[in-house]
Design a protein that fits this description.
- The protein has 228 residues and is α/β, with parallel strands linked by helices.
- It has ten helices and eight strands.
- The protein has an eight-stranded parallel β-barrel with strand order 1-2-3-4-5-6-7-8, surrounded by six helices.
- The N and C termini lie far apart (44 Å).
- The mean pLDDT is 92.
Length: 228
Amino acid sequence: MTDFTDEELALDPHFADRFEPGFRPACQLYLISPPKIEARFVDSLAAAFDGGSIAAFQLRLKDIDEDAIARAAEPIQALCAERDVAFIINDSAALAKRLGADGVHLGQGDGDPREARKLLGPKVQIGVTCHDSRHLAMEAGEAGADYVAFGAFHPTMTKETHHRPDPSILSWWTALFELPCVAIGGVTADNAAPLVKAGADFLAVSSAVWNHPDGPQAGVAAFKAAGL
């Protein structure tokens, strides 16, 4: 196998300028739960939904068993259905199947999208984390993913990250592929604009909403004020 230097593999930041931009819907918010949730979290989620339009909500809870996640999910999933927000489970296709979730988000160590598709059927959304890798994103698309996620674009306290892509990877993806892409990692209302301009179809947000000094409704409203 030929070895390439980082410089040779680097993406031209103006790559997408060579292509005529196709139509893509306006960028939308993809809300991720905080790492831990309280008993009345559903009230906070309702407040977030009141702040502006949210396309999807991902329940991402680590270090607790699936029975506990399933119990926590029940009122949250009901609220998502009421508000017409896609309800996504993180990591586990089996749990997504058990709950009848609208989708599952898989990290690189969370299983093959093809196997998830066999389990979940054609209507359930499957997303795949692709870090800063064009290769992983193309593999995910070939495996039948419904969206790919790139990041972390900014430092984040939500999870440990080891990859920091340039926004140009979003431009590259949207220039060549119809499959939606998600920008994730430390996204705030203040730093969202370059990611939207680069081509993100969705912005995955978490701390900027849940840790907003004026509450989650204001956290979502801040993105609306910023143009989303």
